[in-house]
Write a structure and sequence with these properties.
Number of strands: 18
GO molecular function: catalytic activity; FAD binding
Family: Belongs to the FAD-binding oxidoreductase/transferase type 4 family.
Keywords: FAD, Flavoprotein
Radius of gyration: 23 Å
Strand content: 15-25%
Cofactor: FAD
Protein name: FAD-binding oxidoreductase
Distance between the termini: 26 Å
CATH class of the largest domain: Alpha Beta
């Protein structure tokens, strides 16, 4: 492989071809620190042309490559396996914002741009890029698009797919497709852009994207409401949509146990409502008219919900600091779980109307098989996306409980399938869930996916072992 490595060094500079094991380690270990792969090298190109040169070398020498952005994924999608045959193609040096067209409400960013940097550039132009994720300080837009990230604002603005108008991609054989068109209508053939979004780097390497921007809202208001059960949260969502329309930006469901975990591990935060209710909804309105207009809408629908016995209590943020504190209760759930200990995670989506019934049925099934197991349930109720995580019962050793992961996954995923849901809402499949795909996708769908993969990546060098077996 020395000829291959020499070729990489000639293409992008020897300083950007890393083979030292200690220096490679951060690129080989997944975000949750549960798996470390091996690699031939970590390669760090800085331009689209350099990416193309590396991909051509990989095809020539039959070296697999694993594209990687911020390495914040949760399904081993950007980590190589243990064979040591692949390279990690780090896109962190492709981090420039190429253009911001305020009149067209678009921003063109390279794949390695940190999400927060895109937010800042949009804000400087009095615009909003609405993709909102807890990892926004480290995740990259290439990774967001690769997994079709959702986040907290999907209810109003859609997933990463809906926020992207065009792509620049290095194909599986090293060609460069420039599809950076900031068009909202283009009916000239197959929508190639949508094939690459959500493909987790298995079809090509996204190097830049044209992103949708929106006018900055005149006001943002945040509230937390308490209710007894998830079906009450669905009732509240319907009321909020009826009273607030498109001003309803986020509607997050958080179980009491999830809230208790955050307060336990982040004692500087405080609960805006007593933790005596089963479920909590975090609600955000973004209004283009005025703060008074938004406040009237928020207060009106919350008062109605209380009168109808849908919610038991509510608190409205009175300052930016209070709003940020409320959001920290939601955004620190994953960190609090990690501090508490290992748990079995599920990133699922269901028809919104089925969320309550799914939780009731699946909670009951899990308790029957694993009495006392603790459910950390939270997610984007407005779009049916749910993080349904299972922790060990009190007194049960965590490692012994983690050995039950296959059985717990089967209960959860079979229940998801019975409600016509999906086993991956926004994290992707990666290497972690690829075998589950065969169980829950029809054979004809798997066959079509394999044909697309073969057409785009005939030499099988693009992120092998991810999504498809």
């Amino acid at each position: 492989m020395q000829g291959f490595l020499n070729g990489c060094a000639n293409a992008i500079g020897a300083d950007h071809v890393v083979t030292d094991e200690a220096l490679m380690l951060p690129f080989l270990t997944d975000y949750r620190q549960r798996f470390t792969g091996r690699a031939l090298a970590v390669v760090k190109p800085s331009t689209t042309e350099e990416v193309a040169a590396i991909v051509k070398l990989c095809n020539l020498h039959h070296v697999p490559l694993v594209p990687q952005g911020g390495n914040t994924g949760l399904v081993l999608g950007s980590i190589p396996d243990e064979s040591g045959k692949a390279i990690v193609l780090s896109l962190n040096r492709l981090n420039r914002i190429r253009e911001l067209d305020a009149a067209n409400n678009t921003l063109t960013a390279e794949a390695g741009c940190i999400l927060d940097h895109i937010h800042s550039a949009a804000t400087d132009a009095e615009r909003l890029f609405p993709l909102s994720l807890p990892s926004s300080g480290t995740c990259t837009i290439g990774g967001n698009l690769s997994a079709n990230a959702g986040g907290t604002a999907v209810l109003r603005y859609g997933t990463a797919r809906e926020l992207c108008l065009g792509l620049e991609v290095v194909t599986g054989e090293g060609g460069i497709w420039n599809g950076l068109r900031g068009l909202r209508k283009d009916n000239t053939g197959y929508d190639l852009r949508d094939l690459f979004i959500g493909a987790e780097g298995t079809l090509g390497v996204m190097t830049a994207a044209v992103l949708k921007l929106y006018p900055l809202p005149k006001a943002k208001l945040t509230a937390i409401a308490a209710m007894t059960t998830p079906d009450k949260a669905l009732d509240l969502l319907n009321i909020a949509q009826r009273y607030c329309g498109t001003s309803l930006t986020a509607f997050e469901l958080v179980s009491r146990y999830a809230m208790e975990l955050v307060l336990k591990h982040f004692p500087a935060l405080s609960a805006p409502l007593p933790l005596t209710y089963g479920q909590y909804a975090l609600i955000e309105l973004s209004d283009s008219e005025s703060e008074d207009h938004a406040a009237d809408m928020l207060e009106t629908f919350l008062e109605y919900a209380i009168e109808e016995d849908v919610i038991r209590d509510a608190a409205v943020a009175q300052s930016i600091a209070q709003s940020q504190s409320m959001w920290q209760l939601r955004e620190n759930i994953s960190a609090a779980q990690a501090m508490e200990g290992k748990n079995i995670k599920h990133d699922i989506a269901l028809p919104t109307s089925s969320v309550s019934d799914f939780i009731a049925k699946t909670d009951q099934l899990l308790q029957a098989h694993f009495p006392g197991c603790r459910m950390v349930t939270f997610g984007h109720l407005g779009d049916g996306s749910l993080h349904y995580n299972v922790s060990a019962p009190p007194g049960v050793p965590v490692e012994a409980f983690m050995d039950c992961t296959p059985e717990i996954n089967r209960i959860v995923y079979d229940s998801v399938a019975s409600f016509n849901g999906t086993i991956s809402a926004e994290h992707g499949l990666g290497a972690l869930k690829r075998e589950e795909l065969v169980r829950y996708k029809p054979p004809i769908e798997i066959d079509m996916m394999k044909r697309i993969k073969a057409a785009f990546d005939p030499n099988h060098v693009m992120n092998p072992g991810k999504i498809l077996i």
